[in-house]
Design goal:
Chain A is mainly α. Chain A contains nine helices and no strands. The chains are: A mainly alpha, B alpha/beta, C mainly alpha. The complex binds protoporphyrin IX containing FE, adenosine-5'-triphosphate (ATP) (2 copies) and magnesium ion (MG) (2 copies).
Chain lengths: ~230, ~230, ~230, ~230, ~230
């Protein structure tokens, strides 16, 4: 059977399980709100300066809130030892990984779609001026950190101290991706077009996505059935 | 063709050898009971045969192919302690999912068939979360048998089950043997295992110290093998 | 045998270092603009170079581990990561001191400095991850995958000065700017000296790691026998 | 036996277990560094404005990094069902809770003590100007969020979805405490004395600590053996 | 004084009654084996007696006091599936810790004594993390017996143990009974339990349907009780 069908089956399974209870997605979204709230204490959100850094704020909120969804990705398989059953099934590890990453990516995009308007209101930001370029950056940036998050979720699924280790590992490795996404987003939110510096960051983001997608697909079999 | 051929397998956790030069074969239709004290290496060996982790040295062939080959995985059914079905999905969704992953022609039909065989057809659409222990165990059995595997690997299948659940599992296994399946299982509950086993193997500190047809003595005195090799 | 090699290398390194120190501190002229702080250069650059080389070697050793599943490559990977981290610390400390004098601040967040810091955190992450996994084989496998992911930061550190506008200068050495030949040769002589120190440290750590592994195995064996 | 002896026994046990491996404390500290890094992307930390909000940044970093230690507090008891043994022992739940909170508090203060100088260097901030008032605020603020964190760690120790629910619950409830600590810290870092607004926030903090300490001690028996 | 008195205890999970009007008493020196199918309520009942969770209705008295009273806890030893010792601490540190928590006069000495009794004195300073399964189990036993409890509560103590570990546990339990301890345990491994049990009780769907002295028939045919109440 074509590998992409397996990818879809896995993604569909994860989405269905998640959407049935909406646990991760709800708490991820609420957590994003809490983070925005915390930040609004730390800074005066209406100040002009804050608006300049809004891209950064937004991606920090995405990264922290998204981690709740990403961590759960493989942790979801633990309670009944389901991961063993998936590894034992005649599904290439790469397909399994892509399926899970795909599901996570869609869930994250969903959460982000809710965050944007809320954020716009709280921080008084017009985010629709460069809508399509912004969408592109968000989609690529989210894919980058979904990849890393899903991979590390798989990597640490069986280690004691998962929760303690994950943030350190994940955020460090995904910094280049986050940095690029933040900078590009800040520029686009400021109304600049996707050219010059923003374009450089975008290219950087694409490079990151390509390299890390390939690395993940190559290494995932070792990670799961090493 | 030989069902499982284990050749000179070693497994190291760091420098500690959990398995040492294990070699044996299992013919199709055999039911091999792996015995051994806590820490003898039963789980480790089963996981290597199932392809969950690679052997450190030596090789495993399942129906002539490596353990991780996709074709091998299609022929193998695994059941460990965990029931390996999803709490958030219904019984039928679970089975259909695995049917699809195994590339069955008609996953839906296979799922219904096995729900019937395990007596779960009435709760096909109930979420697993709401199932009792016994129902979950039956669903797990259905999942393991769904794709009609030729080789079954079971790690302590009888643990924590009550008499009735054990009877169900035994009857399903017996059916499997009659259909020509090969079974390898580990267990500490010798009495329950001996009714099925055609062969037994004893592991001790990572070595296979004995392998033979199940001696008739073991039906009445399951400790017989331990007693013979008692203070190894 | 290995021990003897280490001794020989140590002697060579000591001679080289003494010779270089004499040149650096007493012979080479004072920099026209910066005064004496510039002598940081002779340690700042070689240690940066050694540490980047170490990170690359760690990634190669990790790939070798995943291919050959031999724990000696794992030992090599840890040893190089540790030494690379020490060297990177030296770079950051010398750089900070330099920055304090020439730029007036200890630290700034330009691309070179930031990516260096990320690299440092990545090696910390690697070492912390290793403490969380007891079983040596799983530890080797998981940390190898992590090291491969982490190595993506090396080119970013290296090229950051070209890709982005940084406060950190682009090296005059390569860009064809002018530098006093005496300074240049002193720098060129100190690179192999520091590199050698790195190699010696790696070899020492390697021995230690091997002995520890042996000890672990023996202890586990003893426990199963009792 | 006096209850406070039991408190000390429990705290001592937790500290010993943690300090033997240093897992949580290492990764908490490194994670704090990662957060400083992420923030530095979002804001230009050398700008004057950023320095004004530094108190906020610092506490957000403490809160997120500290969560790693707090989450582990009761999670530490899970692997071998140790919690059952503690609950079964003739120790009042309040003593158990206080012991754990005490251990967490000390660990957090340790991590924070490391963070301050690093933060000072990276963000170019002089934090010693109002040292003693600052210490007071840090100690009280940390106690407040240790309390909440430990309590929720106990509350969620047995629920599936621990990792997902915890951040949301904890940060929402500890917002008042964080807010007060942030504001007081910002004022003190700006060199103002502990009077006027800063004193108001301090009093608020004390109120929070007193109320939540009492609440926790009253409720913990229900939580653990409800 | 009666060791355990359970009076009309109910336990609800949501609306589902996991235990219904359970009443029984255990005299000092008895060893009661709680039998019952998966989900019958054995674990739930033991946890209520141990004070881990309160009864929904009715009450439990242990030596005349409530289950959560500090004095009761001092008299009770609990051993579940988990070994309940800390991996990061050494064997002696673990025992000393619990000795202190139980307020023993000389925790250190009690710890050493029990390490000796369970044959762990040689590894007293080894971290539990490095212990094998059997050693951990022995340490867990030492922890449960350390404070010389008068009532022992065990939930499926024999699960996943090999023959040798079971023998160790049985002998420690037998010693306890000789010293006058009271034991309540749940198990599916009837054969191992019957050698110790002086009384048996059968739970079925949250009700206690039978309670009696252990009939002599059950030594040779452990399924006897189930067979009598077979299709309840
Ligand atoms: C691995 C990363 C690094 C490499 C490869 C590197 C390399 C160099 C080189 C080659 C120079 C000499 C430039 C010249 O030709 O004048 C230099 C200068 C300098 N570096 Fe670095 N460096 C690194 C990291 C850092 C860090 C982390 C800091 C600060 C904390 C730093 C601070 C400086 C300063 C202050 C100078 C002198 C700048 C000036 O002359 O104005 N460097 N570095
Ligand atoms: N992940 C692991 N890391 C380190 N050592 C391990 C690991 N898994 C197993 N071992 C060791 O390998 C040996 C064999 O373990 P294994 O689990 O295979 O035993 P087993 O026969 O299944 O025992 P049991 O009857 O208790 O299930 C043991 O000494 C165990 O400590
Ligand atoms: N935390 C819980 N939440 C909801 N229901 C529960 C919970 N714990 C137990 N139950 C239910 O209560 C009933 C009794 O469970 P219990 O675990 O006591 O059974 P048991 O006799 O120990 O079974 P087993 O032999 O499988 O261990 C079961 O139907 C179970 O589903
Ligand atoms: Mg096993
Ligand atoms: Mg139970």
């Amino acid at each position: 059977m074509a590998a992409w069908r397996l990818v879809l089956i896995v993604a569909h399974k994860d989405l269905r399980a998640e959407l049935r209870t909406k646990e991760a997605i709800n708490s991820s979204f609420s957590f994003a709100l809490v983070i925005l709230l915390l930040f609004s204490f730390a800074f005066d959100p209406t100040a002009e300066v804050t608006r300049e850094i809004s891209g950064g704020l937004l991606w920090i909120a995405f990264a922290f809130a998204g981690a709740l969804i990403l961590n759960r990705s493989f942790a979801r398989e633990q309670p009944n030892d389901c991961l063993d059953a998936l590894i034992a099934a005649p599904v290439p590890s790469a397909a399994l990984f892509l399926g899970k990453a795909l599901a996570n990516w869609l869930l994250l995009l969903g959460v982000e779609a809710f965050c944007f308007p809320v954020f716009g209101i709280f921080y008084n930001i017009r985010w629709t001026r460069q809508f399509w370029p912004l969408l592109l950056v968000v989609v690529l940036g989210t894919w980058g950190f979904t990849l890393i998050g899903t991979m590390f979720s798989a990597l640490t699924v069986n280690i004691r101290l998962r929760e303690v280790m994950l943030p350190l590992l994940v955020y460090t490795v995904m910094t280049p991706c986050l940095l690029a996404a933040m900078q590009a987003t800040s520029l686009l939110l400021a109304g600049e077009p996707l050219a010059g510096e923003a374009a450089v960051w975008l290219r950087f983001l694409i490079g990151f996505d390509v390299i890390f997608t390939s690395l993940s697909l190559i290494l995932v079999e070792t990670v799961l059935a090493g | 063709m030989i069902a499982v051929a284990v050749e000179d397998v070693w497994k190291f956790f760091g420098d500690y050898p959990a398995l040492r030069e294990i070699s044996f074969t299992v013919e199709p239709g055999e039911c091999l009971a792996l015995l051994g004290r806590n820490g003898a290496g039963k789980t480790t060996l089963l996981r290597i045969i199932a392809g969950f982790s690679p052997a450190g040295r030596g090789q495993v062939r399942v129906f002539g192919r490596t353990a991780r080959a996709v074709e091998t995985r299609r022929l193998t059914g695994v059941l460990g302690h965990g029931i390996a079905v999803y709490d958030e999905l219904s019984a039928i969704e679970n089975l259909t999912l695995f049917g699809k992953l195994y590339g069955l022609a008609d996953p839906e039909r296979a799922a219904r068939e096995w729900l019937e065989r395990t007596g779960l057809e009435r709760v096909a659409h109930g979420l697993v979360r709401e199932f009792s222990r016994g129902m979950r165990q039956r669903l797990a059995i259905a999942r393991a048998f769904l794709h009609d595997p030729k080789l079954l690997l079971f790690d302590e299948p009888f643990t924590s089950l009550d008499d009735r659940a054990i009877a169900v599992l035994q009857s399903v296994l017996r059916d499997g043997l009659l259909r020509g399946c090969t079974i390898v299982m580990s267990t500490h509950q010798l009495r329950e295992a001996m009714e099925l086993a055609t062969h037994v193997a004893l592991l001790n500190q990572g070595r296979m110290v004995h392998r033979c047809e199940r001696p008739p003595e073991m039906l009445s005195d399951p400790g017989w093998l331990y007693a013979r090799y008692g203070d190894l | 045998m290995r021990k003897n090699i280490i001794y020989v290398l140590a002697v060579v390194a000591a001679v080289l270092l003494v010779r270089n120190l004499e040149v650096i501190l007493l012979r080479v002229p004072v920099d026209a603009e910066q005064g004496n702080v510039y002598r940081n250069l002779y340690f700042h650059v070689p240690s940066a170079f050694t540490s980047l080389l170490g990170s690359i070697l760690a990634a190669v050793a990790s790939i070798a581990y995943l291919v050959y599943k031999d724990l000696k490559y794992d030992a090599l990977a840890v040893a190089t990561v540790e030494v690379a981290m020490v060297m990177l610390t030296v770079t950051m400390v010398t750089g900070s001191i330099w920055a304090r004098v020439t730029w007036g601040i200890w630290w700034t967040w330009d691309a070179r400095l930031t990516s260096t810091f990320v690299g440092w955190l990545l090696s910390i992450g690697y070492l912390v991850l290793r403490t969380a996994i007891e079983e040596p084989t799983a530890r080797a496998r998981i940390s190898a995958v992590y090291a491969i992911f982490a190595s993506a930061d090396v080119p970013i550190i290296w090229f950051s000065i070209e890709w982005f506008r940084t406060q950190h200068p682009a090296p005059v050495l390569r860009a064809g700017g002018y530098i006093d030949p005496a300074m240049k040769s002193a720098l060129y002589w100190n690179v192999p000296a520091i590199l050698l120190v790195g190699v010696i440290l790696v070899l020492l750590r390697l021995r230690q790691e091997e002995m520890r592994r042996e000890l672990d195995g023996l202890r586990r064996l003893a426990h199963t026998l009792s």
